[in-house]
Each structure stands twice: as C-alpha cells, then as structure tokens.
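User: Okay, second chain of the day. Same drill as before: sequence in, structure tokens out.
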Amino acid sequence: MSRNTQRSLADSRMRATSFSLAVAAVLLSALGVALSSVWVLGVGAWLLISAVLIELIYRP
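Assistant: Same drill. Structure tokens below.
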C-alpha cells in the first residue's frame, strides 16, 4: 500500500497562509515592543492567535 505524500493545492495554501500570519505576527510584535505601542503589539498577538488556530483546526 503506497501512501500519497503530495499535498493538495488547498493544503499548501493553508500552510502558506498560516506561515504568513506567523511571520507578520513576529514582525508586528517586535515593532510594537520597539515602539512601545500596545496596539501594534496587540495586532501581532491576534495574528499569532489566528495562525495557531488555523494550524489546530485545519490539519491536512
């Protein structure tokens, strides 16, 4: 029995979306800390939360 190891286009898209959100979250969080801006830090935190939720809910 061979297993299909290739990801579908939707799986790749969701992985890229989650990765993009995580990168944006790290950048915005660092910018928020550097500028001492709580709302920028908050946006970064919410982006990180959404990236984690996508990874938890959408498991290919």
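The first helix runs from residue 9 to 35.

User: Thanks, on to the next one.
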